[in-house]
Amino acid sequence: MTTGRASVHVEEPGRAFREAWIAGVRKHYPGEPKPGYVAPWEATPEWERVSASAVYEQVHQFIEVAEGATAKLTREQKGRFVALCWTAQIFRHFPNPKASYVADWSEMPEWQQETDSDIFEHIERTLLPMS
Question: Which domain of life is it from (predicted)?
Fold first, then answer.
């Protein structure tokens, strides 16, 4: 099974990542999310835009290299991949980030875990044909 990268082109991968993040936050965050969590793409800081694009591309490449076998991963495994890629971006942009910004999966709030899993599945849906 191939994913056909040439036939699937996302014009703005960072924006697509951000939109999936916002949708996940609105769905899973308990109560009213912080304004920064749901700020539109235009109001997103540059480092975060760069990071969103990088993580989208990492997930995209992972799905392609696995030739779609990522569909067999659990939601948790998918979310962990997104979280780990994001953590690397935090370290890339901030030499000494707050511990909460680079928390391991088990330390992350459930809403964030669910949102990261949603992001992976959103990217996956753009690449893999529906069965």
Answer: Bacteria
Residues 34/22, Cβ–Cβ less than 8 Å: no
Q: Which residue has the tokens 């910004």?
A: 101
Residue 119: partners with Cβ closer than 8 Å, 6 or more residues away? 17, 20, 21, 24, 59, 79, 82
Q: What distance in Å separates the CA atoms of residue 14 and residue 55, rounded to the nearest whole number?
A: 8
Burial profile 28-61: b = 16 or more Cβ within 10 angstroms, e = fewer = bbeeeeeeebbeebeebeeebbebbbbbbbbbbe
**What is the pLDDT at residue 11?**
84
The span from the CA of 52 to the CA of 58, in Å, is: 10
